[in-house]
Design a protein that fits this description.
The protein has 228 residues and is mainly α. Helix content is 72%, strand content 6%. About 12% of the residues have low confidence. It catalyses: a very-long-chain (3R)-3-hydroxyacyl-CoA = a very-long-chain (2E)-enoyl-CoA + H2O.
Amino acid sequence: MAGVGFTLRRLYLSAYNWTVFYGWAQVLYCSIMALRGSGHEAVYGAVERPLLFAQTAAIMEILHGIVVMFKGLVRSPISVTLPQIGSRLFLMWGVLWSFPEMLAWFHDSIETSVLQTQSHILVTSLVISFSITEIIRYSFFGMKEALGFTPSWLLWLRYSTFFVMYPTGITSEASEKYCLRIPNKWNFSFDYMYGSILVLAVYVPGIPHLYTHMLKQRKKALFKAKTA
């Protein structure tokens, strides 16, 4: 029975990782094609569906982290997984999808203007940073579950690219400071600044923990590969 359970676990995690890998690969491919063909303004429109699918599928990783507290499904601690995935879901669904058009309020004047948030250049950098990071991560775990090993170059990428991709992604997230104010066609008021403060209150304190966790994992993984 233990052997059957182990096999089912590996089959499930392999299928999950490769499915989400495919979603992020679509995101990166469509991003590059849109960027080359029409510029950064067209990137979000080209990747919205696979982007929302791939990022929403990450909810399963929170469930995996909860399961690990009881009967180890995966090793990733929920203290790392929850703030990272939660902030991304807030950005994808709570801002980019919900408010493609927002009113930006300039506090040093009485002027307001309509901004197309989805076509902002920071959204493009965000999408590309996320997709590269996740393609590496999901292919790493997918190969590990399917074959039981990963090539050394993929191992290095998994535990090294975060030095560049995390700052790029975090900067793009934090720079989207938009507001929606009444009157508007939705008859709804949303102050992104306060929403961001709430999210950052959870997310930002977790960034050092996230980096520390990745550095420890990098040292452990690369040392183990070197001595193997």
